[in-house]
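REQUEST ID: PR-0412
SUBMITTED BY: lab tech R.K.
PRIORITY: routine
TASK: structure prediction, single protein chain
INPUT:
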Amino acid sequence: MTQQESIKEEIAYWKEVGDNSFKEGNYLAALEAYETITHSDPQNVEAWKGMATAFSLLDKPYDALQSLDRAIEIDPADSESLEIKDLLLKKLMEENQELLNRVKEKESDKSNQKLI
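STATUS: complete
OUTPUT:
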C-alpha cells in the first residue's frame, strides 16, 4: 500500500467516525475526527464544513466561521459553504441585535427611574 492510499484510508476512517459521532449527538468527537482529517488533508473542504457544523452545535460560532472561511478559501465556488456562512452570520447578527436591544432597555429603565 502506498502512502497516499494509506492517507486516503485514514481520511475515510475519520470521516466515518465524524459522521457517526454527529448521528449520535457527540459533536465534540465529530469535531475531533474532522480536525484529524484536516491535519492529514488541509484541503479537505468537507472536513472544514464538518468542523464548522460541530463548532456551531457546540455554541462556538466564531470558530465555525473560521472553519467556513477556510473551506471557502479552498473552494470559493462551494455554494453550500457560502450558504452556511450566510445563515451563521444572520444568526449572529440577530443575537447581537437582541443583546443590544436588552442593553438599551436597561439603560432606558435606569433613565426613567432617575426621572421619578
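NOTES: The helical segments are 3-23, 27-40, 45-57, 61-74, 79-115.
REVIEWED BY: pending
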